[in-house]
Amino acid sequence: MRFRPLEKLINLQDGYRRSFRIDELALLLVKQDGEVYLFEARCPHREHPLDAASIRDGVLECPLHRYRFRLTDGALVQASEEPCRGLKTWPLIYEGNEVGLLLPD
Ligand code: FES
Description:
Layout: E1 2-8, E2 17-22, E3 25-32, E4 35-40, E5 54-56, E6 59-61, E7 68-70, E8 76-78, E9 93-95, E10 98-103
Antiparallel strand pairs: 1-10, 2-3, 3-4, 5-6, 6-7, 7-8, 9-10
Bound molecules: FE2/S2 (inorganic) cluster.
């Protein structure tokens, strides 16, 4: 596994949102209410971009159909139509003054 830095810690202010494309991965790095999260950039329901999703108490709500996902494990916690798979999330790795993720070699 190799560390792939995404952002310097000094840039992670509350309300921070930035998307990243790494190989085939589309990721969204977010800081909200003092917590930092990394998850896939599109909703697993119908692929709506999640950069405008609301996040509260560790739960993300997609703005399109308001499906809700728990950010600790990505589990779907509320669906208004057919259920979908969970949201992919990645554990954050802190190294020096940067935050990132581990990728396979
Ligand atoms: S596309 Fe996100 S809830 Fe439907």
